[in-house]
Design goal:
The chain is an alpha/beta fold. The protein has 2 domains: 128 residues, ATPase, nucleotide binding domain (Nucleotidyltransferase, domain 5); 140 residues, ATPase, nucleotide binding domain (Nucleotidyltransferase, domain 5). The protein has 8 helices and 9 strands. The strands form 2 sheets. Strands 3-2-1-4-5 form a 5-stranded mixed sheet. Strands 8-7-6-9 form a 4-stranded mixed sheet.
């Protein structure tokens, strides 16, 4: 490895997945992702080592700057600083597509709507973290009822001839409602579409609160669900702006971008917004 080469990393410790991204002055050089374990510090160290192993001669200690973010960002003691996931998702999306002004991030345990300026800085944000409904965990729970993985569940919803609304606002009651609809022999694909539509509606409500300005992007693992994307685009009446990087890596990528931006500044903690 070139000793003068500088590498910057972000480690996003989420409630369900832990991600790491390494960048240099030209772009992304390594990424890694794994399920978050019971020990966030151990998982963060492991995912960072996995990412570093993709760059010849690079060890975690050789990183010029590392920033931790996400649900467990305070559990990354080897990071040079911790930055909120709000800031990092905005920075990650801006790194990929500077034209984006509005972001909806559907994470494992919360959903965030973020309004950004032309520099990728957060203007305003709102989040729904009071209930699991509308989050990644909710989608996983629903897919298990159908004995499917998330990709299969998304594909099923795309086959719907109509959308059967899911009216319950609570994830527990929504589960009961879905089971009841299935027991009454309603088409599974129509129920699946109703579930995707309910998540899209919750996200759309949050987006309206921060102000929807094109371009709009969706981040988080749920962004890979084409059923959800379809319903959200229908509500927005526009196509979501594409991201050339896995949307689940946006937080870690943004943390890496923030690491590069603040390298040498001595900053210990960035703004929470």
């Amino acid at each position: 490895m070139n000793e003068s080469k500088k590498y910057y990393a972000g480690c996003d410790v989420g409630s369900t997945m832990t991600k790491a991204v390494i960048i240099d002055d030209k772009g992304i050089v390594a990424t890694a992702m794994m399920p978050s374990g019971i020990d966030p510090e151990q998982t963060a160290a492991k995912v960072l080592e996995t990412a570093c192993s993709q760059v010849e001669g690079l060890e975690p200690s050789g990183l010029s700057r590392l920033i931790g973010t996400g649900y467990g960002r305070n559990e990354v003691p080897f990071a040079h600083a911790n930055v909120s996931e709000i800031t990092c998702h905005a920075a990650g999306v801006h790194y990929c597509n500077p034209d984006v002004r509005t972001v909806l991030d559907i994470g494992g345990q919360d959903t965030k709507a973020i309004a950004m300026d032309e520099n990728g800085r957060v203007r305003e944000f709102v989040m729904n973290d009071k209930c699991a409904a509308g989050t990644g965990r909710f989608l996983e729970m629903m897919s298990r009822i159908f004995n499917m993985d998330l990709d299969q569940f998304s594909d099923l919803s795309l086959k719907a001839k109509k959308v059967i609304p899911i009216t319950s606002q609570c994830s527990v009651f929504a589960e009961t409602e879905v089971i009841s609809l299935l027991s009454k022999k309603n088409p599974p694909e129509d129920i699946a579409a109703g579930i995707q539509a309910s998540i899209a509606k919750r996200g759309f409500t949050l987006l309206k609160r921060v102000g929807i300005q094109p371009e709009v992007s969706l981040t988080g693992g749920c962004a890979k669900s084409m059923g959800l994307v379809k319903h959200l685009e229908r509500l927005l009446r526009l196509k979501l702006a594409p991201l050339p990087v896995d949307p689940q890596l946006m937080g870690a990528l943004g943390a890496a971008a923030e690491a590069a931006k603040t390298a040498g500044s001595g900053l210990k903690e960035a703004s929470a917004s």
